[in-house]
Amino acid sequence: MKDAAPPSPSSVRWLLGRPAADAVQERVAARVAAWTGPRVPGLAVVLVGEDPPSLAYVRSKRKACRQVGIESVQINLPETASTGAVRSAVAELNRDPAVHGILVQLPLPPQVDAAQIIAAIDPAKDVDGLHPDSLGRLMSGRPGLVPCTPRGVMTLLDHYRIPVAGRRAVVLGRSALVGLPLALLLLHRDASVTVLHSKSPRPWEQTRDADIVVAAVGRPGLVEPEWIRPGATVVDVGITRSPAGLLGDVAPAVAEVAGELTPVPGGVGPMTVATLLANTVEAAGGTLDVGA
Ligand code: GUN
Questions:
Q1: Would the CB of 275 count as within 6 Å of ligand 1?
Q2: What pLDDT digit, counting tens, does each position of 171-207 carry?
Q3: Which domains does the chain show, CATH number per domain?
Q4: Cβ contacts of 224-228, under 8 Å, gap ≥ 24
């Protein structure tokens, strides 16, 4: 009898963000080109201080706006700005009919009360989906603006036809920006969802049973190959800057076990920006079929 063939080397399928983000951006661009309202969709980005990563994010968001025909303006406030000063800037943008979407880049300096600022944004212009009204809508399954990164993750899964309904999903991280809204989106799509965090004992015992693992913690290399069931889908939302470049929450060796994996960089990042464009068009009253 012949020996059994050795196991074939694993061939992870990389879930690249660029093709999925381009598909969203093409739809957004077509919708903006066909715009018949008095003003094309407009986005205002509020930047407090000069945090280098925030400057880079804002640049890439405004560049993407230009590519699809969305008007964008940037409001710069000094690092020392008070909560009142940021609130006033937001109030002015709430009144501006040329502004359909408002994004206050996070993190804000410590003297600024971020919760107060987010609550001051007109919910109709809340393209970040972080206003309590938007999060309440998401929780109760009513239509509303959905946070960009979680919605982008769902669009990415759909683009690569990863089934969600009836599957076990583990979300690592419970932030209002990513983990919590993503858990709700997965739940609304009939996944069985577990949310784990820094106080969860032996997280690997739960990730090992999951069909879909999403890491959104910000701890480089946290998810090791032993945490992953062979063939599972792994989405890496973590981005940590290091001298070696951008690092995800998922250790590189997970590529030898996972069935599908998002790279860092080039995975979820482009989806966040593309979803911001989609949210801006929707806030301006345009309908889009971008899924999720
Ligand atoms: N900082 C990092 N990610 C985000 C985001 O999605 N929205 C905002 N406003 N700030 C961020």
A1: no
A2: 999 999 999 999 999 999 999 999 999 999 999 999 9
A3: 39-123 (3.40.50.10860), 148-268 (3.40.50.720)
A4: 224/251, 224/253, 224/254, 225/251, 225/253, 225/254, 225/256, 225/257, 227/203, 227/254, 228/254, 228/257, 228/258
